């Protein structure tokens, strides 16, 4: 399974981009050929208000070749890329393949914290994901740690002072084509 995580800053008005991403982009993206799973990690309102929110998503393909074919398809090039250019700063995009990780509980219904650094703060049950390349500054290392908490306030208290190395979000999973697929 090829699992990848993306972080992309907004292009243009962040609020317009957020609304478009949440209401339209997911439906367009899930028609990408060969896609097995797609999750948007939607930053909570406080992240957008403090100006640290980034568009964060995850994809799953059968393998790296299926992912390459998808991103070189006419549909992705003509439809998805054109859509993304309207609200994402694609030139500043970062992504990494998830090469190993521990079993995170299903994030549906909770608040997810993504900690883009080698050393997460105490106070949560963290699940490490090993990445194929270093996380973007101000993060460090080749791990992202994830934790699920019940409330946004609790999640925000974990990330206070993180200066962009963390993201508090509500995960929304779009594509789940078979019972065999697992977003972990």
CATH fold annotation: Alpha-Beta Plaits
Number of strands: 8
Approximately how much beta-strand content do the residues carry? Answer: 25-35%
Compute the separation of the termini in Å: 10 Å
What's the CATH C level?
Alpha Beta
Spatial arrangement of strands, main beta sheet:
1-3-2-8-5-7-6-4
The H/E string reads: EHEHEHHEEEEHE
Number of helices: 5
Overall pLDDT metric: 89
> What's the architecture, going by CATH?
2-Layer Sandwich
| Helix-strand makeup class | alpha+beta
In one word, what is the shape? globular
What is the C-alpha radius of gyration, as a whole number of Å? Answer: 16 Å
Number of domains: 1
Helix share bin: 25-40%
Let me know the largest β-sheet. 8 strands, antiparallel, barrel
Question: Which regions contain 5 or more consecutive residues with pLDDT less than 50?
Answer: 177-184
Organism: Prauserella endophytica
Pfam family, one: EthD
Domain EthD: 13-90
Protein name: EthD domain-containing protein
């Amino acid at each position: 399974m090829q699992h990848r995580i993306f972080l992309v800053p907004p292009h243009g008005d962040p609020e317009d981009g957020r609304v478009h991403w949440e209401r339209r982009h997911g439906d367009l993206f899930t028609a990408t050929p060969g896609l097995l799973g797609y999750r948007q990690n939607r930053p909570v309102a406080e992240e957008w208000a403090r100006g640290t929110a980034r568009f964060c998503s995850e994809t799953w393909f059968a393998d790296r070749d299926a992912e390459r074919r998808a991103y070189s398809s006419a549909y992705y090039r003509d439809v998805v890329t054109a859509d993304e250019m309207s609200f994402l700063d694609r030139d500043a995009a970062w992504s990494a393949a998830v090469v190993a990780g521990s079993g995170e509980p299903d994030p549906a219904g909770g608040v997810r914290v993504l900690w883009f650094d080698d050393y997460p703060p105490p106070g949560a049950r963290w699940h490490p994901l090993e990445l194929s390349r270093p996380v973007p500054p101000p993060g460090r290392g080749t791990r992202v740690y994830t934790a699920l908490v019940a409330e946004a306030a609790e999640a925000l208290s974990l990330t206070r002072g993180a200066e962009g190395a963390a993201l508090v979000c509500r995960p929304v999973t779009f594509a789940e084509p078979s019972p065999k697929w697992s977003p972990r």
